[in-house]
């Protein structure tokens, strides 16, 4: 989710409820009962983690990819993700001064436990790195074709669906 490009979605401008409504609409209309792999970077990383942790939204997800998340603050808001069957991939670069490096990684590991996988690239700052795609593909492959139940409770083999919403193109009324 790219939230830095739009003046209405820059850090501090978008409310969690608006974000939740947008994600629910996209998932419910376009993917119905299919579970999705949701990805957020930077400020959006905070929102996707909080989204998954509230109101049983994790049931709509096959997994989370969080890239150099910032603004989480109190990790209590996402602590419930430790006890749900949702795999989460955290990506960042060692020289990312915005994310907080190994200290932030420790907080994420402590909060999410065995549900969290972490991949780190040596350098690249707070940018989307092409190398991330390799880690995302490997992660997605692990999630593909898991046997489970869809959101309606039907037994099914989950098919991997990746959702990227570029929120900067959405219109928000203030």
Helix content: 25-40%
**Mean pLDDT metric:** 78
Beta-strand residue percentage: 15-25%
* H/E series: HEHEEHEHEEE
Spatial strand order of the main sheet? 4-3-2-1-7
Determine the number of helices (DSSP H or I, runs of at least 4 residues).
Answer: 4
Radius of gyration: 15 Å
Q: What's this, in brief?
A:
The protein has 174 residues and is of the alpha/beta class. The strands form two sheets. A five-stranded parallel β-sheet has the order 4-3-2-1-7, sandwiched between helices. A two-stranded antiparallel sheet has the order 5-6.
Q: How is the secondary structure organized here?
A:
Blueprint: H1 16-30, E1 36-41, H2 43-53, E2 61-67, E3 87-93, H3 101-112, E4 116-121, H4 132-143, E5 147-149, E6 155-157, E7 162-163
Parallel strand pairs: 1-2, 1-7, 2-3, 3-4
Antiparallel strand pairs: 5-6
């Amino acid at each position: 989710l790219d939230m830095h490009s739009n003046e209405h979605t820059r850090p501090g401008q978008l409310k969690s409820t608006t974000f939740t409504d947008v994600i629910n609409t996209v998932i419910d209309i376009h993917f119905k009962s299919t579970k999705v792999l949701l990805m957020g970077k930077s400020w959006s990383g905070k929102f996707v983690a909080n989204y998954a942790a509230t109101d049983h939204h994790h049931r709509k997800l096959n997994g989370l990819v969080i890239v150099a998340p910032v603004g989480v603050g109190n990790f209590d808001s996402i602590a419930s993700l430790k006890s749900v069957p949702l795999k989460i991939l955290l990506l960042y670069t060692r020289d990312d001064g915005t994310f907080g490096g190994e200290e932030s990684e420790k907080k994420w590991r402590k909060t999410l436990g065995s549900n969290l996988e972490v991949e780190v690239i040596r350098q690249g700052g707070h940018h989307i790195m092409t190398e991330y795609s390799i880690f995302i593909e490997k992660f997605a492959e692990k999630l593909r074709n898991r046997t489970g139940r869809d959101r309606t409770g039907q037994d099914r083999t989950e098919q991997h669906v990746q959702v990227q919403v570029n929120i900067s193109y959405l219109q928000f009324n203030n």
